[in-house]
Amino acid sequence: MPQNDFSKILLSAVEESLSSLGDSSKQAIFFHLEASFKIKKEHIPAQLAGFTNALERIFGPGAPYLEKLIVRNLHEKLGLDFEDGRYSDFVECVNNARKHLMFKGECKAP
């Protein structure tokens, strides 16, 4: 799986997770990410640390819930097991999923 495919799957997981808040809320979040944090939707995979920081600033204590939902959706889309008890850090979990696929030869490094 090429890197850009991983990015598309990650973006799909982000969109699906934010859709749980409602479509207009999802659109407002993407607008706020770009207007306030200079993170365009298509750049989220390359700016994971900035994205998670933005979620924390927008949602405060609710951010980890959304992050976990994104990671769970990502793992499901990639056919990987998600162990709720092993979830720690959003960026780390996304990078671990990418590394797992690279190890299996399904994802090329950028």
Considering the chains and any ligands shown, give keywords for the structure.
about 110 residues; mainly alpha; 5 helices; Non-ribosomal Peptide Synthetase Peptidyl Carrier Protein, Chain A; single chain; about 0% strand
Describe the structure.
It contains five helices and no strands. With 110 residues, it is an all-alpha fold. It has a single domain, classed as Protein of unknown function DUF3227 (Non-ribosomal Peptide Synthetase Peptidyl Carrier Protein, Chain A). Helix 1 crosses helix 4 and helix 4 packs parallel to helix 5. The chain starts with a helix and ends in a 7-residue tail after the last helix. The C terminus is likely disordered.
CATH superfamily placement: Protein of unknown function DUF3227
The appropriate CATH architecture is Orthogonal Bundle
Structural class: mainly alpha
How many DSSP H or I helices? 5
Approximately what portion of the residues adopt beta-strand conformation? under 5%
Instruction: Give unreliable regions as ranges.
Output: 106-110
The figure for the number of domains is 1
Highest-level CATH class = Mainly Alpha
Terminal CA distance reads 12 Å
Integer average pLDDT: 87
Helix content: 55-70%
Element-by-element helix/strand order? HHHHH
Biggest pleated-sheet summary: none
The number of strands is 0
